[in-house]
Write a structure and sequence with these properties.
By secondary structure, this protein is α/β, with parallel strands linked by helices. Helix content is 34%, strand content 25%. The structure holds S-adenosylmethionine.
């Protein structure tokens, strides 16, 4: 499982501790917030170590080729800046990179938190539309389709669900009364991916 834009790595760290038989990779362009948990991950298991966890410093625009085809799940939780733009505008080049690291039928889950008053300026700066169901259907889903993903669903996450997410931003945003949190889920679709089409030379 890959957590892209992992922040301080809390979500993958907790997941790796809870599921020792699965391998977890946290990726972020900024390594500084990862220092604490990446040091802890190297300890002995009884002191918080997690041998089934790896952190990678990389931009979502340039994911390492070593990850190609590995991810059975990719999570993007509370993206911001270029990562938010890439997954929500969305940017075909970034989706191609994420699609590349997905295993066959690998699932990508995107969770975006929006406070209309506080976040509008950032949405405007990034050129993002409001992520309503209509916008997702008309503007976002077709780009995921073209990038080789199959749309599985979207909606609003109730506060009780997102506030329980084990990640730093869910905690930080917990007090924002007006914040809406929307999600969408897609799966890597080999049948629809041009690179895998038998007619593609
Ligand atoms: C708001 S934080 C969310 C962190 C974490 N997912 C959470 O839920 O607590 C957004 C993260 O995305 C990372 N990020 C932004 N643009 C990125 C990019 N292009 N590639 C990789 N990481 C990026 C930032 O460094 C930051 O850690």
């Amino acid at each position: 499982m890959v957590d892209l834009g992992t922040g301080d790595g809390r979500f993958v760290y907790q997941s790796a501790r809870a599921n020792p038989n699965r391998f977890y990779i946290g990726i972020d362009a900024n390594a500084d917030p990862l220092r604490k948990l990446s040091e802890k991950a190297f300890r002995r298991p009884e002191r918080g170590g997690t041998p089934n966890l790896m952190f990678v410093q990389a931009a979502a625009e340039a994911l390492p080729a070593e990850l190609d085809g590995l991810a059975d799940e990719v999570h993007v939780h509370f993206p911001w800046g270029s990562l938010l733009r890439g997954v929500a505008l969305p940017d075909p080049a970034m989706l191609a990179g994420i699609r590349r690291i997905c295993a066959p039928d690998g699932v990508l889950e995107v969770i975006v938190g929006i406070d209309p008053a506080r976040d509008q300026r950032e949405f405007d700066r990034l050129g993002l539309p409001a992520l309503t169901a209509d916008t997702l259907a008309a503007r976002v889903r077709p780009v995921y389709d073209s990038a080789g993903f199959r749309w599985l669903g979207d909606g609003l996450l109730p506060r009780d669900d997102w506030a329980k997410l084990e990640c730093a931003w869910a905690r930080r945003l917990g007090s924002g009364e007006r914040r809406a949190v929307c999600y969408f889920v897609v799966a890597a679709d080999d049948r629809e991916h041009p690179a895998n089409s038998p007619n593609c030379s």
